Sequence to fold (454 residues):
Amino acid sequence: MARLPAGMTRRKNGTLQLQFNIEGKRYTVYGKTKEECREKELKKREEIRQGTYKSSKTLTVSEYFDRWIESRENVVQSQTIRTYKKLMNRVLGTVIDKAGHTFGDLKLVKVEPDNVRALQKELQKECTIKDKNGKERKRKALTTRSTNDSIYLVKKIFRNAVNERVIAWSPAECVEPLKRTEEQIRETLHRALTIEETRIFFDHVGDSAYKRLYTFLLHTGCRVGEAGALTPRDITGGVIRINKTVTRTEIGYEIGNETKTKAGTRTIPLLPEVKKVISEQMELNRLLYDHGVFRTDKPIFRLPRGGLLRADRVNDDIKSICDKTAARWGYVENPGEVGEGTTCYKGTSITGKDTKGTVFPYSGIKNAKAGDMYLNTDTMNMYLCKAGGSAAGIDRFTVHAFRDTFTTRCVDNGMTVKELMETLGHSDVQMTMGLYSHANEKKKAEQLKAVNFM
Fold:
């Protein structure tokens, strides 16, 4: 390996760092190549010569963040950079005192722990934020999780400032994360579906443009971005080759050149069910989007109008299907309290024009009892509510739940953790088992109840 020029060293992440001195002061630039480092050195030298370069000691938090994010652009993926910018835009613009100063206005070297605590407090309530032009607007209160994520990024930036010797210590380190009060998303939207929920969901998919995508995700455990980047060229030798993903950039969505993580580059066996839906989707693409030609360079799974797959659009469709699974109107066989203010009468028939009992709206069946019967006016199907059951349909979930469901089914059916970890594209076993463990709390409780301890 060729030796690096004087002042240049290779960092742990593989990128290069170049340090140089001007009038006794040390400066540092970063880059992927020697040429990039040299270009940045020349640029910084010119800024210093013209007097436009700001010393680290006089930088505001906003100015230091701009320098920090620039140094990260060659280290992390563009999606991560976008997330950092989104988090910090609301942090830097948050007004933290009565004088109207924002957190980003503060001099980096003068930030105190109380400033970070004030920021944390403001993030949790509806407050005023300012953009770079000073224009004010109201921002909704953040959840505890979003607040903690924001403060974590602030800590990360201040730690970097300490490592660069811009500040002697980090004023953010002593600020504790807030205790989570909201129900965790992994127990609601990001959860493993039960077998019954899965069956009901697919029974109601109907003519959804994404119905083949749902089958693919359930049988592969892929992330939706990975599915959206998949082309026919990636299906070879009886396996699916996952090597890229759809990412969101500053100007829109695009297919990147790599997966979310290095471990995400992997192969997945091509099951018959998956092969079938891929073939069907390719034929649909040929007819709808590709002018009668099989395009091996175009994504297999797309938006209904042919654009790149987006999780938010898919989640909207899932939400709609979940709502369809709920019985909109119902009839109860036996008298009893079903919902507040609802009285039910004994009867035997159940139709939209039932005259033997009371037909009542969905909002009145939240406390459904065993033996209750309901009519879904979308499908005209009748449902008999079993013991411990409900006629309220499937709770809403997001597309990520298919990945949780895949993990749960694989472990329940004896797949080894190592094989599952490689199939999911995880870098360590803790991530895999963490995905499985939170999906099986209900099952663990049921099995524990069945144990005879005495």
Notes: The chain has five domains: 1-53, 60-182, 195-323, 327-393, 401-449. The CA atoms of residues 73 and 81 lie 7 Å apart.
